[in-house]
Amino acid sequence: MTHTTRIQILRSTVLASVLALASVASWAARDFTPQAGTWVISEEVDGNPGRGLAIDVQGNTFIMQVYGYEQNGDATFYTAVGQMQGDTVTAPLVRYTGGRSFGSGPRDAVEDHSLGDVILRFSNGLQGTIQLPGEPEREIERFLFAQRDAPHYKTEQWQGVTRDARWLGLNEQGQVVNAWRAMLQWGATDPMQLSLSNESSRSNLECTRPAQTQSIHCIAVSQTSSPVVKEAEFRLVGAQVTGILTLQAEGAAPLQLQGVNTEAFFPPGAVILGGCCSRGVETYGQGSVPYGQQPSYLPSNGTWVIKDELTSKPGRGISLDVQGGKMVMQVFGYQANGQPTFHMGVGSYAAESEYSDTSSTRFSLQQYGGGRSVGGDPASAYLVQDAGDVLVSVSGARSATLAQAMVQFPGEEAKLMQRIPLESPQSLEDRFFGEWYVPSFARLGGPLTVTLNRMDGDVARNEEGSVRCQLNAETQRARCLFNRSSDGVYDIDFSDEFVMSHNFVRVRDRHGNLTGLGNVPLD
Description:
single chain, mainly beta, Porin, 3 domains, nine-stranded antiparallel sheet, eight-stranded antiparallel sheet, 2% helix
């Protein structure tokens, strides 16, 4: 990848360059998207500090920070940016120097050198392999530090909670053939209760959590009309759901489950719009329901940067990962002498108070040393120093976005940070094109999903012309019409590229890649 094929779009070393989209060839679409957040090299997970990966894939654009150590043991990081070619990416692993340290004034980083190419191959949204320069290929996996039975989910506040989600059933060809609203009643003991409903059917299932697995297994409690779900085996992985669905209909093929979690609340069924009768627990959407007690507003996991450090030159960046009431943060920055380093911290993340629409955390940022270098022998790291506390706060107000937050690093004032859109829309096609699930259209007899792939002036439409969408540049909302009927009008909010919603789900991105996790192990 030559320098001329890159676009310098921000100050963060995390995103020093992104390949120019117009110059990229068209690759085979994936049936998954790697989940953004912290990844690890599987064989190096031993309970001791070490090295890791902060990965973010949006569309076909890939970015990764490798946090590890120099040959002398000093903490460091490297950045790789490239374009996915199917499920594979090859990109130079680059070292930068000279950027900003905690409490310093503005300083631009510069490219020091490339260690060589790094190659990653993903098998699904949670697993893959990596070959670092000078090393053999090794297995990698998403670091899931708060899985199904984490202590967070065994606390009193989670007893009787209902998880609300939107589930899509895909056939072997990757087509959405059914969709449900899924409501899972969580409890300390099994069985849990799962309700799957849509315009034509309702399935009630009882669920258990088999030992030695991370999956949840549900079986229908009654035989009802077809098509209806007979069994469901699935995993909850942050904001996403993945698994397999078996239908009651004789001879029906199993469906791949691709789902999005939206919120969790208590008690089940007690949400009254305009009222205040539900206690919110957590949500992936801002200002979504007028809870009596505010939930924990969960920010978008992935690559972040301080907004006023967004310039055309390299600088520092942040990786956020929130799971099960905990936030893990890696900060990729520089020492006072300009050498690259990283700091890491973890802390409890929750609503500030019962009636606050702000969720926050405070924890120490620590620097490690002595770990494994790229191409080096196995070595465990050790704590070098505590740099001080970081404060992070996220607003759940309707006017806010969960892709923005306030951050205060040691020795600095609080500043606005945001998750980086790696493929910032440059045209209407970038915003609209792709496959969408809009339940309100299905209720009106429209298609289960809509693929927007044509432009008529400033109007995006599907091939048949039955669905037409037009963007309001001022509000950043698109008004979509089904068969140009006033009954079939729906607004899609494009102001937040990372929003999780019940009302519209992007099934495939504009490149044709499925946005779910694909075929992941359920055992």
